[in-house]
Specification:
The protein is an alpha+beta fold and 266 residues long. It has helices at residues 2-21, 25-37, 43-52, 62-67, 123-133, 170-184, 189-205, 220-223, 227-265, and strands at residues 59-60, 71-72, 79-89, 95-106, 110-111, 137-141, 151-154, 159-163. The strands form three sheets. The chain has a three-stranded antiparallel beta sheet with strand order 1-4-3.
């Protein structure tokens, strides 16, 4: 009964937070900031982290901290998230998943010698990484006709055009938007807002200046939706961020390994 009640409270907190973030632009920005640090978390778990500890940066369960040499503080604030448990069959024959409440602890609540590293990415390397994360054809051009953008994805021929000589941070703004467009598509103004959100999170995560972004003006459509509908609209943002970060992190590791091997060869 305790576990059932606890899980119900967690689901209620997810719904409450979903409804809250679309009513206040700063709250929505805080959700995106949280997502930029936890790109592999589901929409629900990102909402839970934001609601309970919005400044969290690295979370693990108790045993994981201990095994890595950390000692969670006795008087600490844990974060409740959901983790998959057993599967079950619905009445329509589809497969569903049960979830259990899991307690995780942020590094700020742990005594540990090895502190979290803050990654600083070389801008040339970061641009190379983003371009390699592109899933379409890539064409470098002198300029892109009929636009002042430094990057543009053409869906018709599945090609990402990138203009030579474009300056940071604008090249990062445009490239990340077009990467997000590949994932989400752009059929309406709400899609455009979602693309902008993903671009903001990518730049935020990888250390690109985000002061030019305006992501606090939440579309009116979202404000009129139920908690379930809001979560469904957040899913494409969530999936695009997770997919692009997965590819980006892969290439960061690959190029770092190549550099280490070159240094050793010298």
């Amino acid at each position: 009964e305790f576990k059932k009640k606890e899980k119900q409270e967690v689901y209620e907190l997810i719904d409450k937070t979903a409804e809250k973030i679309v009513q206040n632009g700063e709250d929505f920005k805080q959700y995106l900031d949280t997502k930029s640090r936890f790109e592999q978390y589901s929409v629900g778990n990102t909402l839970l982290v934001m609601a309970q500890m919005p400044n969290a940066t690295m979370v693990r369960d108790y045993d994981s901290w201990v095994s890595s040499g950390g000692f969670p503080k006795k008087k600490r604030r844990d974060i409740k998230i959901l983790e998959p448990a057993d599967s079950y069959m619905r009445e329509d024959g589809s497969i569903g998943t049960n979830y259990n409440v899991k307690y995780v602890t942020d590094i700020s609540q742990v005594n540990i010698r090895q502190k979290q590293r803050i990654a600083n990415y070389d801008k040339k390397l970061l641009l190379k990484v983003f371009l390699n994360s592109n899933q379409s054809n890539l064409q470098i051009v002198d300029s892109i006709p009929n636009t002042d953008k430094s990057a543009l994805y053409n869906k018709e021929n599945d090609t990402l055009y990138v203009a030579k000589g474009s300056d940071a941070p604008y090249i990062f703004y445009d490239v990340t938007r077009e990467l997000a467009k590949q994932e989400i598509g752009e059929e309406n103004p709400l899609d455009t807002f979602k693309i902008n959100c993903v671009s903001y999170m990518l730049c935020k995560k990888y250390g690109v200046d985000v002061s030019n972004y305006n992501i606090t003006e939440v579309p009116f459509e979202l404000k009129e939706m139920s908690a379930k509908e809001i979560r469904e609209e957040l899913e494409p943002i969530n999936n695009a961020m997770e997919n692009i970060c997965g590819r980006t992190n892969y290439y960061i590791e690959m190029f770092a390994k190549q550099n280490r091997e070159q240094e050793q060869a010298r």
